[in-house]
């Protein structure tokens, strides 16, 4: 589709449509409400190979019905995609449990589950402790290096 020189062209990532817009007026004067309304109707959509006429009064009822039907179709498609996404989120939540629940279950088995942060705090306190031997401090530094590397 031919587009007048100097037009602004973009690909709308939300709708997947290619859009073209005539450039804004070059005068620095403030636009009147009517000029802003006309400029809104100047957007040309080239996805289907049709372009909107500059004159806002030139729409036929058939064109308006087509545009409305297309809007309803895209809305239905968006709803379908969002409902599928929500379903996937629920499926993922069913597969995993919160860490608090896991900690409670491990405590019932007399096992203590620690996060990396908690382990790092213990290693730092062991390193800073005056009661630790040189070998214990070196081992704490090696272990701490492993956890810090992961972060």
From TrEMBL:
Domain of life (superkingdom): Eukaryota
GO CC terms in record: endoplasmic reticulum
Record keywords, A-Z: Endoplasmic reticulum, Protein transport, Transport
Biased composition (Basic and acidic residues): 16-35
Residue span of region Disordered: 1-41
Record GO biological process: protein transport
GO MF assignments: adenyl-nucleotide exchange factor activity
Listed PANTHER family: NUCLEOTIDE EXCHANGE FACTOR SIL1 (PTHR19316:SF35), PROTEIN FOLDING REGULATOR (PTHR19316)
Protein name in UniProt: SIL1 factor
Organism listed in the record: Climacteris rufus
């Amino acid at each position: 589709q031919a587009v007048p020189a100097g037009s602004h062209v973009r690909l709308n990532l939300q709708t997947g449509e290619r859009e073209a817009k005539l450039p804004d007026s070059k005068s620095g004067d403030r636009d009147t409400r009517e000029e802003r309304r006309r400029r809104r109707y100047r957007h040309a959509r080239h996805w289907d190979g049709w372009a909107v006429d500059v004159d806002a009064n030139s729409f036929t009822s058939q064109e308006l019905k087509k545009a409305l039907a297309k809007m309803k179709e895209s809305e239905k498609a968006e709803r379908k995609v969002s409902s599928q996404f929500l379903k996937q989120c629920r499926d993922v939540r069913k597969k995993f449990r919160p860490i608090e629940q896991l900690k409670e279950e491990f405590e019932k088995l007399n096992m203590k589950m620690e996060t990396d942060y908690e382990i790092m705090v213990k290693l730092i306190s062991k390193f800073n402790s005056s009661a630790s031997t040189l070998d214990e401090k070196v081992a704490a530094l090696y272990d701490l290096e492993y956890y810090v590397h992961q972060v």
